Q: What sequence folds into this?
């Protein structure tokens, strides 16, 4: 039986962990690729986010039953969650989908309480996504404008110092470009979906047509657009090799 490590040795090992992570990913580009992969959840994570919306839209368009559409989307998310739990894998992306459905249901409930028609309630289901993308774009753009781009903190999570990357202008510039690429899909979604939602709510176009369009656009402008942004980021990352400078341990 081996003796446990003394406290000072254990602390030394902990101090080495950020440096080890930096060694495993020795460039800023590699760090960002690694972190983006985790954030998106790969193909499975993106599919889990899309399936409930696909089923909600398809059920509404075919059955014209809002409650059934909500139950079907929630049921699908719960099945995906159960599979994740059985496999003992991360439930983050399924939980995100369930949270989104819950917010959508809340907006539907508020619309019903205000006396909105079933079409109005179906439109309300899509409003949180539009608001989320608008808010997300504003926040990410703001971090770029004040030169604290959000992607930079991905670098900091590896080096062990969340803000040291700001001392390198090259890294700040790279992270700003990458963050703007995350902003672009959000702006595009709002620019396309918001006018349709407003037109459907005001009666300028048939509400059922607006719901159908929003359901299709939520999928088309969802993970495919995210993959396009990711592809652009990978291309940008492949052009440079910016070394990750881990903070030196004190003597």
A:
């Amino acid at each position: 039986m081996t003796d446990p490590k003394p406290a000072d040795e254990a602390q030394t090992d902990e101090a080495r962990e950020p440096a080890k992570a930096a060694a495993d990913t020795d460039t800023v580009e590699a760090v960002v690729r690694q972190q983006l992969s985790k954030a998106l959840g790969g193909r499975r994570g993106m599919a889990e986010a899309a399936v409930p919306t696909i089923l909600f839209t398809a059920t509404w368009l075919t059955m014209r039953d809002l409650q059934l559409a909500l139950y079907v989307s929630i049921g699908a998310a719960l099945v995906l969650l159960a599979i994740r739990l059985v496999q003992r894998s991360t439930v983050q992306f399924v939980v995100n989908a369930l949270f989104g459905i819950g917010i959508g249901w809340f907006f539907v409930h508020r619309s019903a309480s205000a006396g909105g028609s079933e079409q109005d309630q179906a439109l309300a289901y899509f409003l949180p996504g539009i608001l989320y993308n608008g808010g997300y774009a504003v926040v990410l753009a703001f971090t770029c404008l004040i030169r604290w781009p959000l992607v930079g903190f991905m670098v900091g999570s590896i080096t062990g110092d969340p803000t040291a990357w700001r001392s390198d202008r090259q890294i700040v510039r790279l992270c700003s470009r990458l963050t703007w690429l995350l902003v672009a899909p959000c702006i595009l979604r709002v620019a396309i979906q918001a006018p349709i939602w407003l037109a459907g709510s005001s009666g300028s176009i048939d509400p059922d047509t607006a719901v159908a369009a929003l359901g299709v656009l939520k999928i088309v402008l969802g993970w495919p657009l995210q993959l396009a942004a990711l592809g652009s980021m990978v291309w940008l990352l492949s052009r440079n090799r910016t070394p990750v400078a881990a903070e030196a341990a004190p003597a």
The mean pLDDT is 80. The chain has one domain: 25-238.
